[in-house]
Amino acid sequence: MEECNNHCNTKIVRFMQPSIPESIVNELGWKMESIVLMTEDQPHRHWLIILEGGRHFKSGWKDFCDHHHLNVGSTPYSRFNCMNINQTQVGGHQVAQVGQQIPPVQPQFPTCHITVTYKSRNNSVVYLPRWFITSSGLRNRCCFLKLIDEKENPWEVKLLNSKYNGYSYITGGWKKFLISNNIKPRSVVSIQAIQAGMRPILKVSQVTLPPKRFFF
Q1: Between 76 and 68, residue with greater pLDDT
Q2: Which of 37, 59, 70, 158 has a CA between 20 and 30 Å from the CA of residue 47?
Q3: How far, in Å, CA of 201 to CA of 110, rounded?
Q4: Domain map of the chain by residue range?
Q5: Closest of 141, 116, 139, 140 to residue 126, by C-alpha
């Protein structure tokens, strides 16, 4: 991954359409030809999106939607409903991070959705969204935790915190969990925090997605 360099303050906006809000483009004072999208659950994966008219997503957007099981023509996006325009750069392209907006009232059992990747499975590592870690009481925790599969079987894994980027991730058993539960790359799983404390418990279930439809 290429190094990111900060240039100005963060700008967080609602992400309801496949474009950058016109007000943000006007505030920047120039029209961009491209932008790099990142997601909270895959911070090392970069998606280069070519922009039309300085803000409308074109080339590269279909690949992003296909990978994350989104309908290109649908709105709003339930999994990516806000865009964090932090003005960092990767390879000369500006960066925007899309993710789930933190709800104003935290649910009793916080739940997030993660797309399983080949890299995540092969390296036995899965990154968790920061809002989920915070609302689950797991911020800056390094500990063992249990995953409960759909058959109510427990699996012991490790929760660690990256000193490089501050993200929390599950490792030490994640690959075995996926293989044993027949969860393949490109599948989407629901991760729900059902118990905090010294030995946290997360329930993991595979999400059944509707057939993909693309609009051009």
Answers
A1: 68
A2: 158
A3: 12
A4: 11-99, 111-207
A5: 116
**Equal CATH topology for 11-99 and 111-207:** yes
Q: Which CATH superfamily is domain 111-207 in?
A: DNA-binding pseudobarrel domain (2.40.330.10)
Whether 82 has a pLDDT exceeding 70, the answer reads no
Question: pLDDT of 108-132, one tens digit each?
Answer: 788 999 889 998 889 999 999 888 9
For the entire predicted model, the pTM comes to: 0.53
Enumerate the β-bridge partners of residue 13: 83
